[in-house]
Amino acid sequence: MTENEVLENSVKNSVINYKSDKTTLSKIGMSYFFLLLIMFIIPTVLIGIFHTNDNNFALLFNFIGFVVGFIFLRYYIKKIPKSDNIENNSLSIYKYVYYLIMGYGLMIFGYFISNILKGFFVPTGVDPLQTLQSSNIIGTFFYAVIFGPIFEEYFFRKFLIDRTIRYGELFAVLTSAFMFMIYHMNIYQFLGVFLFGIILAHVYIKTNNILYTITMHQIGNFLGLIVPTVIGSSKVLIDGYNIFEFVLMCLSIGFFIYYLYYVKFKNNTGLSNRELFKMFFTNTGTILFILFGLVIALLNLNMPWIVSLLH
C-alpha cells in the first residue's frame, strides 16, 4: 500500500474528507500565492513607471500593495468557510507581557542566528530591512509600525487561522507562522519571523482576539525598527539597547522552553499532524506560494552565482 493510500484510509476514519479538504487547502495556498504576486508586482511596476529609487516612494508603493492585497484576499478567502473552533478568551496583563517578551525575544534570537550565518554564506547580500531603516522615520513608523502589522495580522491570523483551525491547533499555528515567514520573501528574516509568528498564532488561537496580536506585532516592529533609528550612532545608547535586547532574548528562550513543555494543542480531526501537514505541503496552491516566495527571497540576496543565472 502506498503512502497516499495509507493517508486516504486514515482519512476515512476521521472528520476530514481527503479530496475536498486538500482542495480547500490548495485554494488557501493559491490565494496567498496571488497575494505574494500582488505585493511584489504592484511596487515593482510603480517603481518602474515613476523611475525612482527613493525609499520613501518604495514605502508608499508597498502600502498600495498592502491595500490591493487586502481587498483581494478578503474577497477570495470569504469563499472558503470559516471554522468555529476558536474560543474567546482574554489575556491578563501578565500573560500579554509574557507572550510579548517571548515573541519579540525569539525574533531577536532568530535574527541573531541569521546574522551569524549571513557572514558565512551571504557576504554580498542586500538586506531589505535596510530599506526601512534608511527611509524617513515618519514613513517607516506609519508603514511598518502602524499599518503593516494590521494588514499582516489579518492576512496570517484572522483570515488564515479562521480557516485552518479545523485541522487542529498545532497545524494552524505552524502553517500560520510558516506562511508568514515565506510572505516576507527575506531569508535574513525567515527564522525570526517564523518564531515570532508561532507566538502570535498561539495568542490568536487561544483568545480569538486579533487586537492582541496586532499590538504585539506593532510593539515588536517599533522596538526593532524605530528605536535603533532614534538611537542613531551613540555608542552608549547602542550598547545599552543591545544589553536590553540580549536580556529579552535570554528571557524568551527560557519562556519558550517552558511554553513547549506545558502547551497542549487540540486535534480532533482523527489524523496525525504528519498526515495533515502532508495534505498541506503537497497541494498545488501551497507549492506555488512557497516556490514564488523562495525565488524572490533568493533574488533579494543578490549573490553572484544567483545573478549569473539571469545572464
General description of the model:
This protein is mainly α and 311 residues long. The protein has one domain (18-309). 78% of the residues lie in helices and 0% in strands. The protein has 13 helices and no strands. Helix 2 packs antiparallel against helix 3 (55-77), helix 2 (18-50) runs parallel beside helix 12 (284-301) and helix 4 runs antiparallel to helix 8. It is globular, with a radius of gyration of 20 Å.
Q: What proportion of the residues form beta strands (DSSP E)? A: under 5%
The succession of helices and strands, N to C, reads: HHHHHHHHHHHHH
Total count of domains: 1
Distance between the termini: 46 Å
What value does the Rg take, in angstroms?
20 Å
| C-alpha geometry | globular
Would you tell me the overall average pLDDT?
88
Unreliable stretches covering 5 or more consecutive residues = 9-13, 304-311
Count of runs of 4 or more consecutive helical residues: 13
Largest sheet: none
Summary keywords:
311 residues, disordered C terminus, mainly alpha
Summarize the entry for a quick read:
The protein has 311 residues and is mostly helical. It has helices at 3-12, 18-50, 55-77, 93-121, 129-133, 137-164, 169-183, 190-207, 210-231, 235-262, 273-281, 284-301, 304-309.
What topology does this entry show?
Blueprint: H1 3-12, H2 18-50, H3 55-77, H4 93-121, H5 129-133, H6 137-164, H7 169-183, H8 190-207, H9 210-231, H10 235-262, H11 273-281, H12 284-301, H13 304-309
Helix pairs in contact: 2-3, 2-12, 3-6, 4-8, 4-9, 4-10, 6-7, 6-8, 6-9, 7-8, 8-9
